Each structure stands twice: as structure tokens, then as C-alpha cells.
Automatic annotation (TrEMBL):
Transmembrane portions of the chain: none
Organism lineage string: Bacteria, Thermotogati, Deinococcota, Deinococci, Deinococcales
Organism of origin: Deinococcus sedimenti
Superkingdom assignment: Bacteria
Residue ranges of domain N-acetyltransferase in the record: 2-204
Name of the protein: N-acetyltransferase
PANTHER family: O-GLCNACASE, PROTEIN O-GLCNACASE
Length: 205
């Protein structure tokens, strides 16, 4: 049995753990990264800190263990500006910029450090119709049974209530299972780039 609830600051370690354990296109990436926190610094921590009203977790009732999460922001452009001002600077002190290392020679940790120093910006072509974005991750033991859909519904309802026009997300090009999940929820493919696919969903036409 699982409980769906708003995320709390005390869930931070669990969010980082889940982020790492699903960090290889949904598979465990623990063995791939030297620093177990670096993925969470990019894909989980900033949402809990700067968009807590749009962060929800799936908790196993008996053990109390957090088994999944969905994290979102209603205004991607404003969120990116907030991170540039308040989130990335201290992390840039911890992780050197790998700009001088050819991308093909970088370790996975260095590639993520590159995102800390040079975070990608969502294109205006996407933001004009889909200003919000989200991340969702569930551990294998929590997958199935409609739990992913329940998490997504919780966040999408919160974004709708906030008056958000639409939401987008990115997924690995090889993660066909996740792509099917998003399409089943009504998301439509917006664009493709090497290694990734961007999907969008209109919330308030």
C-alpha cells in the first residue's frame, strides 16, 4: 500500500537516492557515478527547494519509505532565473567546470558538472505553449498499479489550479516505455534531438 503526499524537506535524501537509482533511463545508475549526489543536485534538489508546492512523493505505508516522486514548476523561465541566482553558484564552487575537457572524454560526473556550470535553457518555441515542466521517477517496486498515473495526476491538477497553460518534459530517446506512458496520459511529441524527445500537454486551453 502506498500513500501519495506533498514532499517535505525531510524527503530530500530520499529524492536524491531515487534520482540516482533511476538515473540511467529508468534503471539504477548508482554504479555509473562517483558522486552519488550530483544527479540529485540537478534533477531533484532545486525543485524541492524552489518549487515545493509542486513536489509530491509516493510513500510505502508500512515502512514509510519514499519510493517515487513527481517534481514540477509552473514557470520554467522564472525557475531557470531563480536557479542561476540562488542554486547553481554554490554548486559551481564544489564541482569544477569541465569546459576544457572534450565532451567525449568526460566522465558522467563531469558531464553533469557541465550542466551545473552551463544549464540548458528551455527553448521559447516550447515555453510559449508549455511553460511548466516536470520530472517523475519511481523505483521498480512502486511501478505499475496506476501509481505513476496517480503521481502525474496530482501534479497536473496542481498546475491546472495554478492557471498554467501547458507542461512539457524531456525523456531519453531510448526510454520507449516512458514515452508510451506519457503518450497514454495525453502528451504529444513536440520535438526530437539526439538522445532525447520532448513531450507537451495542454492544461488550460
Amino acid at each position: 500500500m502506498f500513500t501519495l503526499r506533498p514532499a517535505r524537506e525531510t524527503d530530500r535524501a530520499a529524492l536524491y537516492r531515487i534520482c540516482l537509482q533511476t538515473g540511467a533511463s529508468g534503471e539504477d545508475a548508482t554504479h555509473l557515478y562517483a558522486d552519488p549526489l550530483i544527479l540529485g543536485h540537478v534533477y531533484a534538489g532545486p525543485y524541492l527547494t524552489h518549487a515545493p508546492d509542486f513536489a509530491f512523493v509516493l510513500e510505502e505505508q508500512v515502512s514509510g519509505e519514499v519510493m517515487g516522486y513527481v517534481l514540477g514548476v509552473p514557470d520554467t523561465e522564472a525557475f531557470e532565473a531563480t536557479l542561476e541566482r540562488a542554486w547553481w553558484p554554490p554548486l559551481r564552487e564544489l564541482y569544477p567546470d569541465p569546459a576544457g575537457i572534450p565532451r567525449e572524454d568526460r566522465t558522467l560526473d563531469q558531464r553533469i558538472a557541465g550542466l551545473i556550470h552551463h544549464p540548458p535553457r528551455a527553448p521559447q518555441a516550447v515555453l510559449s505553449g508549455y511553460p511548466a515542466h516536470l520530472h517523475i521517477d519511481l523505483l521498480p517496486a512502486a511501478q505499475g498499479g496506476g501509481r505513476g498515473r496517480a503521481l502525474m495526476t496530482k501534479l497536473l491538477d496542481a498546475l491546472r489550479a495554478a492557471g498554467v497553460r501547458g507542461v512539457h518534459l524531456g525523456v531519453g530517446e531510448s526510454n520507449v516505455r516512458a514515452q508510451g506512458f506519457y503518450r497514454h496520459l495525453g502528451f504529444q511529441e513536440l520535438s526530437r534531438a539526439p538522445g532525447s524527445v520532448t513531450f507537451g500537454l495542454t492544461l488550460n486551453p
